[in-house]
Write a structure and sequence with these properties.
By secondary structure, the protein is of the alpha/beta class. The chain is about 45% helix and about 10% strand. It has helices spanning about 15-30, 45-50, 50-70, 85-100, 110-120, 130-140, 165-170, 190-210, 235-255, 260-275; strands at about 5-10, 35, 75-80, 100-105, 150-155, 220, 230. The strands form 2 sheets. It has a 5-stranded parallel sheet with strand order 2-3-1-4-5, sandwiched between helices. A two-stranded antiparallel sheet has the order 6-7.
């Protein structure tokens, strides 16, 4: 589901903005809106944010909740401080893996104003001044130049929330492409893995056998390959097997339809790797 990350100092108006956005989405779309926040998981602010270990556990719980709820349907809003840029990057990676768009809304409220709003809260909802000041000091503001903080909407206290622009960003924008390393690529044929394993293993055996009679500078012909192996030095079995594993990993991510090309591609890969 489209994902909105709220970001800002304690008591900077994030929850109020969440309600504004939620009402707009409910009025103008048929999406179901889900909100994940410190309150929904029962965070006791002064207890958690005074202990780095507890705070880390809370971030993990929030991230796990997001991972469970996020999908390509409906809208998910995360209403929390999200003040660490590395954590916002982790959330961005979650959206990439789910192939859903996201945006960041930064409630850019002056610390003095946020402190006054904090003092106006009830005792159970108020941050202690010591905790509040520490969170202000640790806050890492989002930067639209970072892909995990973009698109970024920076909202001042008196600004009107650009609800339509936010909707366009999360509902009508293409999702970021997933990391190739985390995606299962379709194989181009049912026997692709078998052929890939067999052909590369045979080539390694041919090279090891040929090195018994060859000298540096020789060019070795490989069955099924137009290019030749350029033997510039003695190659150990461990080195060849390591290069073979690298080639197999790469080829799994970029499979070819014609398995007869595997031999020549592996020869080219070897020539570039063993120089």
């Amino acid at each position: 589901m489209p994902f909105v990350v709220m970001c800002g100092l304690p008591c900077s108006g994030k929850s109020r903005r969440v309600e504004e956005l939620k009402k707009h989405l409910e009025k103008h779309t048929e999406k179901t809106i889900h909100v994940v926040s410190d309150d929904t998981i029962g965070v006791v602010r002064n207890d958690v944010y005074a202990d780095s270990k507890k705070e880390k556990e809370v971030r993990g719980t929030l991230k796990s909740t997001v991972q469970r709820k996020i999908s390509k349907e409906d809208v998910l809003i995360m209403d929390s401080l999200n003040y660490i840029k590395g954590y916002r990057y982790e959330l961005f990676c979650v959206t990439k893996s789910c192939q859903t768009p996201h945006c960041v809304i930064h409630c850019d409220t002056n610390p003095d104003v946020a402190s006054q709003w904090n003092q106006q809260r009830g005792e159970t909802e108020r941050y202690s001044q010591e905790i509040f000041d520490a969170l202000v000091m640790r806050f890492e503001p989002p930067d639209s130049r970072n892909r995990w903080d973009s698109p970024l909407f920076t909202i001042q206290v008196d600004d009107e929330l650009p609800c339509q622009q936010i909707c366009d960003a999360i509902l009508h924008r293409k999702a970021p492409p997933p990391n190739q390393s985390t995606q299962s690529q379709p194989l181009s044929s049912t026997n692709f893995l078998y052929e890939l394993d067999k052909i590369t293993k045979d080539i390694v055996n041919i090279i090891m056998e040929a090195q018994k009679t060859s000298i540096p500078g020789d060019k070795l012909s490989i069955p099924g390959a137009k290019d030749k192996i350029e033997i510039t030095r003695h190659l150990t079995l461990a080195e060849l097997q390591r290069t073979r594993r690298q080639y197999i990993t790469y080829t799994k991510m970029h499979p070819v339809e014609d398995t007869t090309k595997i031999s020549n591609m592996f020869v080219q890969f070897l020539n570039n790797s063993i120089r």
